[in-house]
Specification:
Number of strands: 10
CATH class: Alpha Beta
Largest sheet: 6 strands, mixed
Helix content: 25-40%
Number of helices: 8
CATH topology: Rossmann fold
Distance between the termini: 33 Å
Number of domains: 1
Amino acid sequence: MTPLVEAAGLRYRYEDGTLALDGVDFCLYPGETVALLGANGSGKTTFVLQLNGLLSGEGSVRICGMPISKDTLPEIRRKVGIVFQDSESQLFMPTVLDDVAFGLLSGGMELERAAKLARYALQQVGMQSVSGKAPYHLSAGEKKRVAIAGILAMSPEIVILDEPTTFLDPPGRRALGALLGSLSQAKILVTHDIPFARTICSRAVFFERGKIAGEGTVDELARRFDWND
């Protein structure tokens, strides 16, 4: 099976001299949901930002067989959708429908088709009833679902979620887990939430000081690295 993501020898150093990635090799295959575990500052978020060109360091990244370059970046960003930790950073339009359609309209799609695809994405996440609301009226869980809908509207092949359970109560986490489990896209979750990762992730990798220090199931890595619930 051909990987959707192939990363080899990734290294990244921030301007202050911090070495955030130090030789990361990683593959993601169709249908997988993979958890990225590890302490704050271990390189997880820096790594996923390499996957759609928001950061670029040494090494190589191929997305759906394409190397990341200036020419391929627009197509790669359509294939890799990132849902950030703070959903409000992705919600800034007057209504929910406007927010979900924003990426489509920015890409030049005509209004009627963009609205149709946005409504379908909201239906996928169970939020079609709030399409006319202002995003700031929504709960944290609802905002997360709308942010995910904005990514799904773009028809990505890979969905990346950075700390997706932040600000969610237990019912919200359960609802989000059911939603993510229903999506066909390959998914990468940057998370500290072991119980949540256990419910939906088929595999996990553990980041430590900019390297992948271990791979296995969520439970295997939680035991190995004493990453307790």
